[in-house]
Amino acid sequence: MRDIRPVRSRRSGLLTRPPDCGGDGPDWAKWIVDPVRQIEALDDLLRRGLLSAEDFERQKAKVLYL
């Protein structure tokens, strides 16, 4: 059988480059993720009872790269 996985050298580097937004150039501001807003959203889920304290801490650590 033939291996159909993509060869690493042919990958587009999606994790290293932002997507092309078109127009005059990429609008970087809309692609930047704000960690403060992410933690605020997690806190809101915690206060509403939709997220456990353990899950909150786990997700917060991911946001802060801990």
What structural class is derived from the secondary structure elements?
A: mainly alpha
Given the structure, what is the number of helices?
2
Share of helix, binned: 25-40%
Number of strands: 0
Q: Poorly predicted ranges (pLDDT <50, ≥5 residues)?
A: none
Q: What does the model show?
A:
This protein is an all-alpha fold and 66 residues long. The chain has a domain at 28-66. The protein has helices at residues 35-47, 53-63. Helix 1 (35-47) runs antiparallel to helix 2 (53-63). The longest helix has 13 residues, at 35-47. It is extended, with a radius of gyration of 18 Å. The termini are far apart. The model has no long low-confidence stretch (mean pLDDT 74).
Write the layout of secondary structure elements.
Blueprint: H1 35-47, H2 53-63
Helix pairs in contact: 1-2
